[in-house]
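Dear support,

Our group has been running a series of protein-ligand predictions, and this particular one with pyridoxal-5'-phosphate is the one our PI (initials K.S.) wants archived with full inputs and outputs. We had some confusion internally about which version of the output was final, so please treat the block below as the authoritative record. The input we submitted was:
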Amino acid sequence: MKTVYLDNNATTRVAPEVVEAMLPYLTELYGNPSSMHSFGGQVGKKIRESREAVAALIGAHPDEILFTSCGTESDNAAIRSALTAHPGKRHVLTSRVEHPAVKAFCAHLASEGYRVTEVPVDGEGRLDMDFYRRSLTVDTAIVSLMWANNETGVIFPVEKAAEMARSKGILFHSDAVQAVGKIPIDMSRNSIDMLSLSGHKLHAPKGIGVLYVRRGTKFHPFLIGGHQEKGRRGGTENTPSIIALGKASELSLANMEEENTRVARLRDRLEQELLARIPGSRVNGDRSNRLPNTTNISFEFVEGESILLMMNEFGICASSGSACTSGSLQPSHVLRAMGVPFTMAHGSIRFSLSIYTTDEEIDFVIEKLPPIIELLRSMSPYWKTANPACATDSYSS
Ligand code: PLP
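Confirmed final output from the archive:
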C-alpha cells in the first residue's frame, strides 16, 4: 500500500540530497571537528559551511547560529538564558497556544517561582495584541512567542511584537520551528533576539536544531561542558546532522517559492473540496494568514482519532487535534484556547503537506475521506440527534 504522507508538521522525509550529503560523515569522514589533525579539521571546515548555509536561510550571520540537539532544546535554552542574564526579573510572557517545548517549560518555571503570563488568542487563533502590550512589564525577562502555530499554521505578528518588547528593553525569543523553510525569515530586518528551528521539520534528520542568538545578546549556556560552539553549548558536534541541516537549508531556500505557490494551491484544493463534500466541516484558524502547507479541519460529531485510524487503512497519514490521555479524549490546548466548540474540536484533523506532496495524493484523500466521515457519523448517536434527516445506518461510498 502506498503511503500518502500529510503529516509534515510532525516530521518530514529526509531529502535524498541531504542523505547523500551527510553519508560520508557517518562512514569514512568520522573525525572530531575539534581535533588538531587535518582528518578532523576537514570536518570542522564542513561544519563552518553548514553554519553559513543555515545563516543564509534566515538572513543571519554565521556566528549567530548555535547548533543544538532539537527545537525543544533551543526553546528551553533561550528562555533559561534570558532568566539567568536578568536574575532580578521574574516574569515570562508567552502565549496560550505554544508548543509544549515552550508551554511545558514555562509551567516548570512557574513551579520554580517565576510568574508566567499566557497571551490569549481569538477564535481564529490570532494573538490578542492589546493584552500582549499590557503584559510587558519592567519585571519581564523574556517574551517567547511562536512564529507559526504547529496545529493550525496561523502566523503571529512576531516582528511587531519583538519591536514592542525591544522598546521596553525586554528580550524576545521566537519558536520558529514550523515557520523556517516554509515562509521567508530575515533576521537582519527584525528585532528578535533569539529564534529556534529544528532540522526534522525541513527535510533534515531528527535530532538537530539551531538556536539563533543575535550578536550582542548575552547568552548563558544550557549545556555546560567543552568549548564547542564557542563555549555556548558543550558536547561533541553531531557532525552528520549538522551537515545534513546545511544541505536542507540550501534546498529550503531554493524551494521556498514552490512551497508558497504549488504546495499552497494543493492545500487550498484539499480544503475546498473537503468542505464542499462534507457537511458539518470547518477550517480552524485564520485562513488569510497561515503557513502555506497547513490546514486544520474539524468534522463535527466524529472523533479525530477514529478518522485517523480509518485513513490509516488507506495509507493516509495526518494528525488529530485531540490526544487520548488517561482514557479521556481532550481536544488540544490550541483549539480550546481558540474556543472551538467541543463537538468540532474533538473531530479535528491537521493535514500538513510538503514539496513532495502530489496532485494524485490530494485527489486520493478527497476521494477517500468523505465516505469515512459518513460511515463514522452513521455510528454517532450525536450526529443522528443533531441531524435527523442525515441519519443513516448504511455505508454509502
Ligand atoms: N516547536 C514547535 C512549534 C514544534 O512544532 C515542535 C515540534 O513539533 C517543536 C518546537 C519541538 O521540536 P523538536 O521536535 O525538534 O524538539
